[in-house]
Specification:
With 485 residues, this protein is α/β, with parallel strands linked by helices. The protein is 29% helix and 24% strand. The strands form 5 sheets. Strands 9-8-7-10-6-11-12-13 form an 8-stranded mixed beta sheet, with helices on both faces. Strands 17-18-22-19-20-21 form a 6-stranded mixed beta sheet, sandwiched between helices. Helix 4 crosses helix 8 (298-313), helix 4 (118-131) crosses helix 9 (318-326) and helix 13 (435-444) packs across helix 14. The N and C termini lie far apart (63 Å).
Amino acid sequence: MRLQELVEKIPYRLAKNAPNGCLFHDIRHVTTDAAKATCDSIYVCTATALREGHTLAAAAYGRGCRHFLARRMPGLPDDAVVLVVEDPNAYAGELAARCLQHPARYMTVIGVTGTYGKTGTVQLLASILRQNGRAVSTLTTDGVDVMGVVSPAGCIVPDGVSLQEILHQFREAGTDIALLELSSYMLKQKTHLGVPFFATLFTGVSPHHIGPREHVDWEEYCATKLSLLAQRAPFVIAPTRMQICDRLHGAQLLTAGDGGDACAKNLQPFAENGVFGTSFSLHICGNAMPIRLPLPGGDMVQNAVLAALGATVLGLAPTAIAAGLAAASTPGRLALAWSDGERHIFQDSAYTAEDLTRALRTLRTYTTGRLTVLVGSVGGRAKERRAPLGKAATDWADYTYFTADDPNFENVTEICKQMAADVADPARYCIVTDRARAIHQAVLQLRRGDTLLLAGKGAVPGQLVCGNDIPFSELSCIKDAVHDL
């Protein structure tokens, strides 16, 4: 594709000394990664919390790249073609979409955002759709699921270019419906621009992710989440408590909750044959359907109601939705990893005090004996979360194992000490720095009626240690430990 065609209708100015005829150069690749730049690339100088793309432009030039989209002149030799725009982040996705022939136009795309429940809602909606024969691929914070083939996320959050590359993978695999979890960080970085959404789904917005390297205050956080409405999707799904009617831009709004288009009534927890779940009555679009959701907790029921509305706008009948929910699964979200009918082990991705509190509060409902939690905290970031995370663990569980999560280059013992900093009673916890050994020890302590929660990792099959992603399976650790029970 010629550069002139690639940047059509994008408000740029060509920097001085641009070579004659430069707009007729062929571009085959859009990148925000200087290490991937080549002679037929355009390098977009995006800015993130961790990286300023302008400072890496020289590295891209050194790899043969001569075409740049930038906010300012990045100090390159005269043969560099620099197109200056106000905000490179806003155009990275659109350029990549054009270069990849707009992959999202070949599928139905739903964007899901909110403070809590994003991944669970995506997983539930995907499960409903797949039970009904739909070809679905998903992007969540857990990773990329291309028609059932899962690649873990690692520590990289997709930007506008990588999101389009993921959508291209979806298209190549024959995806009909793409479900995209959009974090506030992705929205703030304008990752979603260039994607034609069929529907946008909000799980709810509450004060969170406010602080260093995140959002300066509640107003900015809320505005970032609601910026997804500017994409003018034909359908918007949200809880009844969200006040967004003045931002709909002509979209049809469907609401979940009391007085909305769908709601759950008469919630009752159940535990049968090793299945922990919640039965309820789903009232949706004038129909009342009995549901036995094989997943525990009222929070998961809220996600199920939102997912049901997502399935509705995609054309599924209430009976088909009910059947899909009855067979639903959410890997890594309060997932039952093992049970012998009397002792139970769950996995959950909870990594904040709020997430952990909700998970433990839910499991307490199903626990007749002792509730134990094993939890760590990632290295190199979010240190302010550690003490509240440890306090939540010891407040809600009877006993806590502080251990490794993804320590990377940090000392695990120091991380664990920071998690235990606000715990008054040392008899409520222990520190076991090796996660496999901690799991083995915790499993051997299980007695009749006890529940163990392995928090933080969820279904992620690896551990980040000293810059390397080391294979690590909690399920294998559980299997080995159960053998010794």
